[in-house]
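Batch manifest, entry 17 of 40.
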Amino acid sequence: MRAIGLTEFGGPEVLRVIDLPDPVPGPGEVRVRVHTAAVNPTDAMLRAGVVQAWFGGRPGPYVPGMDAAGVVDAIGPDTETALRPGDRVMAIVQAYGPRGGAYAEFVVAPVESVVPMPPGVDFPAACTLLMNALTARLALDAVTVPAGGTVAVTGAAGAFGGYAVQLAKAEGLRVFADAADADVRLVRELGADEVVPRGDDVAVRFRALAPDGVDALLDGAAQHELVVAAVRDGGGLAVVRGWDGPAGRDIRLHKVFVPDAVTDHARLLRLRDQAGAGELTLRVADVLPAGRAADAHRRLAEGGVRGRLVLDFTTI
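Output type: structure tokens
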């Protein structure tokens, strides 16, 4: 099969088309013929070698990508599933495992990591859901906000932040969010009750809305110590880039690591259902041929992308 991979870490230019053996699904696994794969910041971190320790010394080539959509191609032996070849599915993929990630014509994943696509959703939109929405779901579950409580979200215009806003609203929570001027309308449309300007003083702005502090904050912008002051004493703070604190004031710090939950089938199905019901908005910024993965990574690095860039593997 053809894939987009790298043999050395570096800038976008290290991404190239490579040939790899077709993966064979084992017991409890499903092979998916990939139509589309989303380009996420975690893919850029893999490419740049920021987290190369996660490979455990395994040599390349390395294939990025955690989000794929396509059709079931084969089902491994002794696999209990209602899925059948030809079914349209989404998969969340462990890019740091020996088989590599979603930037490939075929991926093999545990059956628990594969769910049917929502009705009426196309392949580009479908591949933008699972990784970011699952991260937001884990973050919201970790902070355990009381019924009717208040959640603040940083990076609300991004993929994680947008899903965090919508998931919190679906739970009946009051949501504060940050946004650049150009994104205020978008963030309000996603459901935020109050939107404040983004920046290093965002905690002060959130405190102006909640003088005692919010019950929890989901830090999609990785501002870490800059946002702690927005959280009430004993509240919750969920971070997605591994910050260790300290947060102080008995604030509960939760480090969210989505690879630990890629086989949480119940959560993935719930997210699929919420997307199908319109509670989660799937946002595609652009679709590029897979061979232009380096261009997609450059655009991601430039910033300002709203929605996900998507690679089309039917044209590689």
